[in-house]
Design goal:
The first copy, chain A, is α/β, with parallel strands linked by helices and about 350 residues long. Chain A contains 13 helices and 13 strands. The first copy, chain A, has 2 domains: about 170 residues, Rossmann fold; about 180 residues, Dehydroquinate synthase-like - alpha domain (Dehydroquinate synthase-like, alpha domain). A 7-stranded mixed β-sheet of chain A has the order 1-2-9-6-5-3-4, with helices on both faces.
Chain lengths: ~350, ~350
Amino acid sequence: MDRLRIELGPRSYPILIGPGLLGQAPLLAEAIAARDVLVVSNTTVAPLYLAKLERGLEGKRVAAAILPDGEQFKTLETLARVFDALVERRMNRDACVVALGGGVVGDMAGFAAACYQRGVDYVQVPTTLLAQVDSSVGGKTGVNHRLGKNLIGAFHQPRAVISDTDTLRTLDPRELRAGLAEVIKYGLIADEPFLAWLEANLDALLALDPSVLAHAIRRSCEVKAEIVAEDEREHGRRALLNLGHTFGHAIETATGYGEWLHGEAVGAGMFMAADLSRRLGWLAAADVERVRTLLARAGLPLEAPRIGAARALELMGMDKKVLAGRIRLVLLRGIGAGVVEGDYPAEALQATLAAHFEARA
Amino acid sequence: MDRLRIELGPRSYPILIGPGLLGQAPLLAEAIAARDVLVVSNTTVAPLYLAKLERGLEGKRVAAAILPDGEQFKTLETLARVFDALVERRMNRDACVVALGGGVVGDMAGFAAACYQRGVDYVQVPTTLLAQVDSSVGGKTGVNHRLGKNLIGAFHQPRAVISDTDTLRTLDPRELRAGLAEVIKYGLIADEPFLAWLEANLDALLALDPSVLAHAIRRSCEVKAEIVAEDEREHGRRALLNLGHTFGHAIETATGYGEWLHGEAVGAGMFMAADLSRRLGWLAAADVERVRTLLARAGLPLEAPRIGAARALELMGMDKKVLAGRIRLVLLRGIGAGVVEGDYPAEALQATLAAHFEARA
């Protein structure tokens, strides 16, 4: 088992990575110290892993809130069900909320924990690659508004993250590929050698080779943790983690939540960010091709919906990363060298949006 | 104008107290620095003060969310309307939420600000005595659950508090008296000389004498600020501020939100806490009478609803101040000497509950 410690002063916590962790009761009991536990999961994951987790929590008072599965349910209305479960079980401030599922479950469970009695503990048990490499580091929690993603939420760090890589065996291959988009992102923004390692090991990753998987998860968490530790509240460097996200949000919002997976939208968005970086003269055409090839090999869709450049820009304008009306974007000054930039010619952005969002002649 | 600074390190903020502050545009513009402002108010307060506030914010982009008036609307559902207003106006992270109203408006506006985009600024313009002496210090925000008060919320400090004492002239006298309960509370838990001053000046307070009012608000905020500064996240001494609240929550929950005002329930609860303190031998019978007399002179109801001791205990058990199943209460070791205690004979609590909640023969 790999153990990684996220250093955040009094809010530091461990990430445990490896196969078979859900079967290790002592490990679970140590990570989830509370007597009262509410497990938040969804209708897909609960039948697969809830009983196993509950066996590991024997002797505690455990309840479960099983939510409908899907990004379209990441709402205040669904969140209210988690609060109902906490209140109806009379859980107090010493309770612990455990997120068993992917990023949506983690975001909602974490947000519920942040708000219940103004803050109780929570532990993440991510069961998707995306959640294992992304949601488990950074402390972001929240829900969507019908007009925009993640507009309502809180920063709330987990007490521990337990990433059982065996859970990826039941993951929809499409979800696995969406998770790989975020793994590739870490290479693109901060670690060229890791990107080269991914190019060399992509087939093994897709085949769920356990040791290759563990390394990819660990390195992804490390890169994210390094960036988050420098900038916990997202005022500066942390914005690098949003590579592809501003473009991706436009795709997700235009198509409605659920049609594109988040990681898929980010993948297509990273391709656009690379394209714009090339138009600015910051990235060689060969590097854009390198990005495109790796994303395509990972099985990720690169064709954005043809919603028009104007609509895409409008949707990007609602994005959280707007500062005083100006669209700051994460771009690449090279592979492994992400930068946050608001100072670029509007024409270059227009050209990228036209190339990707306009209907072709 | 009085100016009090709440010292909380990087989250320190000023409280401005005095008559006519809402008419002072430069002061408002300084306290509310953001360009984009959402004023959250309710159907009672907005017609009285919204236009005045908006005149003071000329040149900014100002929108308003007007909520229904009453504790029964302090819910996630009402909160969603504030989020809708923020999103529909495309307010970004630099926006400021301004709470114009009483404690309910302040709690919801503050919670919305805490969660919108994971945290934007907010400024309080409290228009009730209760909000001016209580809600404006401490950073507690949140909404009720149908099974308990303030169960969902966040700690989020305002950037500034503007307490215009002229707004108390339009306040329902019953609301004024409810606010006085909290003012009396500060004397009881931490400041006997202040309690004596209140005894001497109660009639002037009830007559809204401006300078007496300003002193009462300022001293209340100071006492609360001293306690909060020591214990921002409510792990120890801050619990003193809950004098009367655990008993009071039982009253409020049993009767449904809205029948008893919060301050009224706290007033009756403080009388019960004094009664229990006497049964424990900590408070003289004459001191209990001193408490009763002052609360009665302030026009506060002291007769709890006759819901029975068992039901009252059950409702107290759901209260947030329960630690691992044990009911910790704020009691008095003397006037001006509040203590937080979980170690007392159950029989004494039972006797107090019987005296106050059981139907009389």
